[in-house]
Specification:
The protein is built from ten helices and ten strands. With about 270 residues, the chain is an alpha+beta fold. The chain folds into two domains: about 140 residues, 3-Layer(aba) Sandwich (Aminopeptidase), CATH 3.40.630; about 110 residues, no CATH class. Strands 1, 2, 3, 4, 5, 6, 7, 8, 9 and 10 form a ten-stranded mixed sheet that branches. The longest helix has 18 residues. The protein is globular, with a radius of gyration of 18 Å. The two termini are about 30 Å apart. About 35% of the residues are buried.
Length: about 270
């Protein structure tokens, strides 16, 4: 493990959990070294294909192209005790709808480690700093997703459906949110297949055979699973927009840190799938 992580210079190390090493790169274009890029292309691609079983090595090889990596605002990689990638998350900073937004580019947890709490830890590593940077303004976090687990987790993190678009059974989507989502679809080159009424992009994952997964993922919320199945085809996705209010989020984060340092953290865990 030491030999592997020593080659991945330029990253900030952070605590993830026993047996794992967290590495965070900011300003990826200048801090992600050629050695680290070579490591990702060799070790990361098989894990990504295992995690997203509907994808291919070519799909991820394109994702790891230098120009795509250089465009990232943040990258987090978690290594297990053997120095093998266990989880990752990547983000961009984009202006959508006239707002500076946190764009969740890609994230995954290797199947054998799902339920170990890695997902929340890696997102917190990038998102908390983005919320601090946006203070006192609200932070709009956006992503393209077809995963009900991802939808439910982000909605819960932002405080529920009042801060989540789209959502089942709610009023019309505000025009400001439509503009953000349209700009996301445009950035992806998929604006012609985007619906401003539902925020759905048809055939979003057109460069896969049958979508990202051999078997569609589910969450612990039957209502979310059923709603997403009702609006999405196998290759479709939504543009998810969630709004974070910095004061309440940073207060909650401060409480979490205090509880952890004084040994008061809850023993409850949540599973990824």
């Amino acid at each position: 493990m030491t030999g592997t992580s020593s080659k991945l210079t330029g990253a900030h190390r952070f605590t993830v959990g026993r047996g794992f090493t967290g590495l965070r790169w900011t300003d990826v274009a200048t801090t992600l070294t050629p050695e680290a890029r070579t490591f990702l292309r060799r070790e990361f691609i098989p894990i990504a294909v295992e995690t997203f079983s509907g994808t291919t090595a070519d799909f991820w090889d394109e994702w790891l192209a230098d120009e795509r990596l250089d465009d990232l605002h943040g990258l987090v990689l978690v290594l297990d005790a053997d120095g093998i990638p266990a989880a990752w998350v990547a983000s961009n900073q984009r202006v959508f709808g006239g707002r500076t937004c946190f764009y969740a580019n890609s994230a995954g947890v290797r199947p054998q480690y799902q339920g170990a709490g890695l997902s929340s830890a890696i997102w917190r590593a990038l998102l908390t700093s983005a919320i601090r940077e946006s203070f006192p303004r609200r932070l709009h976090a956006v992503m393209r997703t077809a995963n009900p687990l991802v939808y439910g987790a982000w909605s819960a993190a932002a405080g529920g459906i009042a801060n989540t678009y789209p959502s089942a059974g709610t009023a019309a989507i505000p025009e400001s949110i439509r503009r953000v989502a349209f700009d996301v679809a445009t950035d992806l080159g998929q604006q012609q297949r985007f619906s401003p009424d539902t925020l759905v992009i048809e055939n979003a994952y057109e460069n896969t055979a049958n979508g990202l997964w051999a078997q569609p993922p589910t969450s612990d919320r039957t209502d979310i699973d059923e709603w997403m199945r009702s609006i999405l085809g196998p290759k479709d996705a939504i543009v998810l927009v969630v709004i974070f209010h910095p004061i309440s989020i940073l207060f909650s984060e401060a409480v979490r840190v205090v509880r952890r340092r004084f040994g008061l953290a809850s023993k409850r865990t949540s599973r990824e799938r």
